Amino acid sequence: MKIFTIVIRVLLGLFLLFASVTYFLKTFPEPVFTGNMKTFSDGLVASGYLMGLAKLVELVCGLSFVTGKFVRLFAIVLLPVSLNILLINIFMMPDGISIAAVLFIGNLFLIYKNWDSYKEILKP
Question: What distance in Å separates the CA atoms of residue 40 and residue 8, rounded to the nearest whole number?
């Protein structure tokens, strides 16, 4: 099970690194959205910081997962980002739900595997 966890962690980290680096380096053209997704995307861009912040979180979490350092911390940091990606795909872009679901489930798996680390902060 330990090797499986490492494989999931590294694959998730590589995916996050790919998504963030391609955003910052503009290696691929921006996708063209329509309807509600276009409105939502335009709002993210108009904020001036939110998309960059999300991609920065992805970059740092990806580096953490690939190197194996601070995985327990960054699995929790990534949780709201991965949940938001999943919900965006459920409500506005159902064709991308499979990738979003893999990201979210992989994140939940890493949290589950490190659950003992979180018990102290979750005490009532």
Answer: 30
